[in-house]
Design goal:
- It is a single chain.
- The chain has 6 helices and 2 strands.
- Helix 1 crosses helix 5.
- Helices cover 62% and strands 6% of the residues.
- The protein is mainly alpha-helical.
- InterPro entries: WH-like_DNA-bd_sf, WH_DNA-bd_sf.
């Protein structure tokens, strides 16, 4: 009989594999995963740098990575504009985001292949319960 690995093992492994898959797929299109996330947030409406930072904070590395770095590249590419009110996606950015969404959807489907919708929903609900048990309130930090 094989020893079962603990939840932490699986969480770290899956996170690493997701990051690697996103990096490979998105880098082929000249975008980082953070930029993809920011485009997704901005596709729902304009936002301030503080709002965007709160949303992606769990994904930023501890070595000083900032949202502003990723936004600067998006602004330079013409996909995002910046004003005193904050950041907004451009028509060009929206088109790019929609094309990337198709690529990301293929990745997500591959990752959940042979996982029933019920099992996937149970997994998400269980992970949320574990996070709440460990003190997560669901509020941005």
């Amino acid at each position: 009989m094989t020893d079962l690995r603990p939840i932490g093992y699986w969480l770290k492994l899956v996170d690493q594999l997701i990051n690697e898959q996103f990096a490979t797929t998105l880098e082929e299109h000249g975008v980082t995963r953070r930029q993809w996330q920011l485009l997704g947030m901005l596709s729902r409406g304009p936002a301030s740098v503080d709002q965007l930072t709160r949303e992606v904070a769990p994904f930023l590395d501890a070595e000083g990575e900032t949202v502003v770095e990723h936004l600067a590249e998006l602004v330079e590419s013409g996909w995002v504009t910046v004003s005193e009110a904050g950041y907004a996606i451009t028509d060009r950015g929206r088109i790019a985001y929609q094309r990337l969404a198709e690529v990301v959807a293929v990745n997500r489907e591959a990752a959940t292949e042979d996982v029933s919708p019920a099992d996937y929903a149970t997994t998400l609900a269980t992970l949320e319960r574990v996070a709440r048990n460990l003190g997560w309130t669901g509020e941005p930090e």
